[in-house]
Design a protein that fits this description.
139 residues, mainly alpha, 3 helices, 63% helix, DUF3618 domain-containing protein, DUF3618
């Protein structure tokens, strides 16, 4: 067992006695000198707090709006209407041999989804009609 030297105590830890001199252990265990503190004006701090609160409130309001079911539903309706208009333009362009300008990637995807869903519903309806006709024919 070794004897402790006078003056060595709670301040001498993994960081040594440098903790009282404005340094702290970095992520690799290295000591890093902190910048000296500058005096801060109380009014400036209060203004910063007010500005930060205002920005935070605006961000929360925007997130609340974007995540609301009403907003999501209206966004879905808008994009479905846009996809229907784009699909109509594509079909009209095919028959009139007009070239459509290159639309937005999302709009092209929405048109494909709308056309696929429409064809799927038509196929499902045709299958239901065929099944009903077969049941009637069998008696």
């Amino acid at each position: 067992m070794t004897a402790q030297t006078p003056g060595a105590g709670a301040q001498d830890g993994p960081e040594g006695s440098s903790a009282s001199h404005g340094t702290h252990g970095g992520p690799n265990g290295s000591s890093k000198t902190l910048p000296p503190r500058t005096p801060v004006d109380r009014k400036q701090l209060e203004a910063d707090v007010v500005r930060t609160r205002t920005e935070l409130a605006a961000t929360i309001d925007e997130l609340t709006t974007r995540l609301s079911p009403r907003y999501q539903a209206s966004h879905l309706v808008r994009s479905t209407k846009q996809a229907a208009e784009d699909a109509g333009s594509m079909v009209a362009g095919i028959f009139t041999r007009q070239k459509n300008p290159a639309p937005d990637e999302r709009r092209v995807r929405n048109v494909k989804i709308l056309v696929g869903a429409t064809l799927g519903l038509v196929a499902l309806g045709a299958a239901a009609v065929a099944a009903a006709a077969l049941r009637r024919a069998r008696g």
